[in-house]
Amino acid sequence: MSPKLKDFDELMNSRFSCRAFLTKEVDQKTIDQIIETAQKVPSWCNSQPWQVILLRQETRRLLSEKLVYSADQAFETPDIDFPKRYTGVYKTRRSTCGWQLYNAVGVQKGDREGASQQMAKNYEFFGAPNVAIITTPKDLGAYGVLDCGAFITAFTLAAAAIGISSIPQAAIAGRAPIVREVLNIEEDRDVLCAISFGFADKDNPANSFRTQRADSVEFVEWA
Ligand SMILES: Cc1cc2nc3c(=O)[nH]c(=O)nc-3n(C[C@H](O)[C@H](O)[C@H](O)COP(=O)(O)O)c2cc1C
Question: 18-84+123-208 adopts what CATH topology?
Answer without folding.
Answer: NADH Oxidase (3.40.109)
